[in-house]
Amino acid sequence: ISSYLRVNYQFHPKVNLFADVQVRSIEYVFEGPEADLFGRISTTKQRLNWLFFNPKLGFNVELHSRNRFYTSLAMGNREPARKDIVDATQLSRPKHETLYDWELGYERKSRIYSIGINAYWMIYQNQLVPTGAINDVGAYTSQNVDWSDRYGVELMWSVNILKNLNLAGNFTWSQSKIWDFTEYIDDYDNGGQLEIHHGLTDIAFAPNYLATANLTYEPIKNLEASFITKYVGEQFMDNTSNRNRMLNDYVVNNLRLRYKLSWKFFREIGVGVQLNNIFNQLYESNGYTFSYVYGGEQTTENYYYPQAGFNFMTMLTVKF
Fold first, then answer.
1. Predicted TM-score of the model (pTM)
2. Do 167 and 137 touch, CB atoms closer than 8 A?
3. Per-residue pLDDT for 90 more than 90?
4. What end-to-end distance do the CA atoms of the chain give, in Å?
5. DSSP labels for 206-270?
6. CA atoms within 13 A on the CB side of 26
7. Which of 62, 140, 147, 234 could form a disulfide with 179 if both were Cys (CB 3.0 to 4.6 A apart)?
8. CA-to-CA distance for 143 and 145, rounded, in angstroms?
9. pLDDT tens across 203-243, in order?
């Protein structure tokens, strides 16, 4: 059950205050096997309840018709994923996550261009991340880390170079850190697991740099061609900041053509084709890694998900 309330107050002709409040109630009821001290198995009914209060407070300042400044503070809560619940017992079940978010931004718009910059800082309490630890039923579930954060700056822009030629893009620089991370690896020589304390580390799959650029040209009415470039920086596959367990950065270029027309009782018909990875770039966008000790040596195995080379798709949209 979820309820939501938003309040706006025009504090000044140029200043608008706003407050959001979301209240969420979640209940899980399920059955699962339970063993007693004598090894007898019985089925027990379990019930979990969460009541989350997620507020947000901020204000917008219209410096004049083309400039806007804004800031906000928010808190959000989220329950553990289904896998982290059903693959655990009442003793090893993780806590819910809490996020504290602060944002500060500025936008400027004109007939020829628009530009925006946004700074953010997100602090997580009990964020669920994979650590390699095995819980009391032998499952590799995500574990709570006490504190972690993400902070960075986002830049967005758009320029009308010509009447029918537009260049738009965005760039993000960010840092994503776990303040005190401990890794667990399987010890096949002695049984159990080894703990490796890493201290401050990078959060997995959180690149420090992201960038996109979109050049759009309309040679004739209703025909649009877009050249899209995307850059994704290096990212780690686990939370140890080990450069031997990472994905390389990559650049992908796509070309999209779209034509729209009106016909009879259809308000709009759009046909298009998108050519993806037109330069046939070889890259991996995801993967996983794990380590173990065997024969007195630690071994790390990396697995990657290679992405398609040149590929295409066609599109048809109909609006009535």
1. 0.88
2. no
3. no
4. 34
5. --SEEEEEEEEE-SSTTEEEEEEEEEE--EESSTT--TTSEEPPEEEEEEEEEEEEEETTEEEEE
6. 14
7. 147
8. 6
9. 999 999 999 999 999 999 999 999 999 999 999 999 999 99
